[in-house]
Design a protein that fits this description.
7 helices; alpha/beta; binds flavin mononucleotide; FMN reductase; globular; FMN_Rdtase-like_dom; Rossmann fold; NAD(P)H-dep_reductase; 191 residues
Length: 191
């Protein structure tokens, strides 16, 4: 059985450190046997969540597309950058829209509940975005997602990557890849 993993980054920055880390975790999932799709949140039509917008116009196209993507994948691999001690608005806004009822009245939360998830983060600071991970883990937990215990927070991330995008520290590469592999293994068990 093919396990499909959806990889999402909470930063839309061109040279995102979180994207580089996510790519390595995604490769770990691929090496274990997963099929990985990358969804770049900035490419989706996703206004900041607004209840009046939803009542008057329904879900924006980007939200519907993201819901369909989540439905089509068994697991979410998420890079969660840290802004002021928490997760980014870009990422939380996407989760909020995904959780809303779908056009056919079915539950958006049910799309996420029971699905495997894993978190990584990167930051130029010492903690590597750990606080963002803690916050995002609580959000995903509340939605019923099964977040694997393995995760990786890359501190001093601005100095951690070689020019080819790989991590200079091979032990860190092993651990980050292990997050992708662990996600694949749980999703396979759940399938
Ligand atoms: C508004 C803002 C707040 C930030 N707050 C934190 C923070 O609390 N902790 C931290 O480690 N880094 C913080 N940073 C630095 C980000 O971790 C850094 O910009 C990182 O490179 C963002 O991820 P990206 O490279 O994937 O875009 C902050 C950056 C911004 C723009």
């Amino acid at each position: 059985m093919v396990v499909k993993v959806l990889a999402i980054n909470g930063s839309s920055r061109r040279d995102s450190l979180n994207q580089k880390l996510l790519d390595i975790a995604a490769q770990g999932a691929r090496d274990a046997g997963a099929e990985v799709t990358q969804a770049r949140l900035a490419d989706f039509d996703l206004p900041i969540y607004d209840g009046d917008f939803e009542v008057e116009r329904g879900l924006p196209n980007g939200a519907r597309k993201l819901q369909a993507l989540v439905e089509a994948h068994q697991a979410l691999l998420i890079a969660t950058p840290e802004y002021n001690g928490g997760y980014t608005a870009l990422l939380k806004n996407a989760v909020d829209w995904i959780s809303r009822p779908r056009g056919d009245g079915s539950s958006g939360v049910a799309l996420l509940a029971g699905k495997a998830a894993a978190l990584v983060s990167a930051s130029p600071g010492q903690l590597g975005g750990l606080r963002s991970q803690t916050g995002m883990r609580a959000v995903l937990d509340k939605l019923g997602m099964l977040v694997i215990p393995q995760s990786f927070a890359l501190g001093m991330a601005h100095e951690a990557f070689a020019t080819d995008g790989q991590l200079k520290d091979s032990n860190a590469t092993r651990l980050v890849s292990g997050v992708g592999e662990g996600l694949y293994r749980l999703a396979l068990r759940l399938a």
